[in-house]
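As described in the Methods, two query proteins were run sequentially through the folding procedure within a single session, without resetting any intermediate state between them. The first query and its resulting structure tokens are shown here.
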Amino acid sequence: MAEGLRERKKRQTKQRISDIATGLFLEHGFVTVTVADVAEAADVSVNTVYNYFPVKEDLFLDRGEAVVDRLSGYVRGRRPGESAAAAVLRALRSEVEGVSPTIGLFSGWADFMKVITEAHPLRSRLWEIQQQALGHLTKTLAEEAKAAEADPMPGLIAGQLSWVHSTLMAWIGDEMSKGRKPAEVSRDALVLLDEMEDLLGEKVLNYAVRDAE
């Protein structure tokens, strides 16, 4: 469905507020900057900020919804004959090969993570997002595999795939914090992904294979 003018303006306003807030947090720190500071810099009211971002943490972690659905989206989009794990690994390799900023492959990643590590509310919110993503992935796997309600396998598989994703993100973050170039980190991250795949068992690698057309 095409985006209407009103929806587009709302999306642009939300992104503008988030971009301005991120700049302030990077410069002054998350705890120091208030929502009122963000509103003033964005030339909007405090209520407007809260209308778009119910909690302050989401001004910085503004892509939380996308992160929650990321792995689930990979699973739902798997190809005929492809398992859930294969789809996730393929998608992550594509992101790494493309030096995608969505997995931390950009020069400002170290500064971004510094804001998070120095602010307990952001660390807590990030953990909450990760737990929501894990729960969402478990539900998606159960639906895609048509698992029984008491079947523990969707949760076990989700834990393994979440481990791959979180380990990759943490490793990339550490390497980018050393001042390395994104393209260099990308090449080494592909090796890491291969090593992690080798550690996954057959039950994980062959779970929820989509029927061939």
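Immediately afterward, the second query was submitted; its sequence and tokens are:
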Amino acid sequence: MSKILFVMTGADHWTLADGTKHPTGFWAEEAVAPYEAFKAAGHEVVVATPGGVVPPVDQGSLAAEANGGQENADRIAAVLAAMTELRAAVRLEDVNLDDYAAVFYPGGHGPMEDLAVDADSGKLLTLALESGKPLGVVCHAPAALLAAAKGDGTNTFAGYRVAAFTNAEETQAGFADKAKWLLQDRLTEAGVQVQVGEPWVPNVVVDRNLVTGQNPASSAPLAVELLKKLG
């Protein structure tokens, strides 16, 4: 049994271009689907957040319409309620990568607020990538890649192929014209090669030890690919 580190947002809001604080957090399915897959495979999960705060769930991600109906929404909520790891989050600043076999970042708009500018997360991502350990990042969590830099100041992930929440999806979600910046654009500017798939359809990209997913529907297939790398 290996330990898998979940690096999660500690932000319960996303500051929009006009200064409005939009309530958010992590997206439920993106934490639950991989969590269930990793636990079923016999692995232990440890949650880390900036400051060790309990990661806030985006309430919108618990709605029936976000989960294909009320029955699945109730199931997702029940799994979250039983995830004791969420309430025992360790401080991201104190994490030792050597303790973990793999690292996974679930999304939601929360990472756009905190992990996108979190130096400790950026250092961890750089170490994880260089270590060759499986590293999974899904949906809006690739915002965290923006804080990862090499010694020469270039982005650690420049030249890597990734999937991430697209401009088209942000537009359809109703936020593209309200956001300070768009994830696909910022990653591209950093030299990361965003592989754009159809909106809301699973799209998982594997480049060396990095496994990324475009949207909530990509979280379960991403977990499958990460488990393959764990052997």
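Helices lie at 28-40, 70-82, 110-113, 119-131, 167-172, 183-189, 219-230. We note this only descriptively and draw no conclusion about the first query from it.
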